[in-house]
Amino acid sequence: MDLSVSGLTIGQCYLVWLEHRDGSQIPAGSFTARGKGLTMELSAAVQGDEAVALGLSTAPGGPAVLRAPISR
Fold this sequence. Notes:
By secondary structure, the chain is an all-beta fold. The chain has strands spanning 2-5, 13-20, 25-32, 38-41, 51-57, 64-69. Helix content is 0%, strand content 51%. The protein is globular, with a radius of gyration of 12 Å.
């Protein structure tokens, strides 16, 4: 998957995850916000049609900073 982000706290490390229908999260990588936006390529061990949302958090299992439903 390709992810483009902006407006995040500079210097903060973010964990990227995909969410299954049952609410479980599959890690998809991490990045540190550097300002002026960032584009990256990430991967996760899940089939695209199995994921219902993409999210960002700052700690494993922590609250979502961002959660976006994946529409089909």
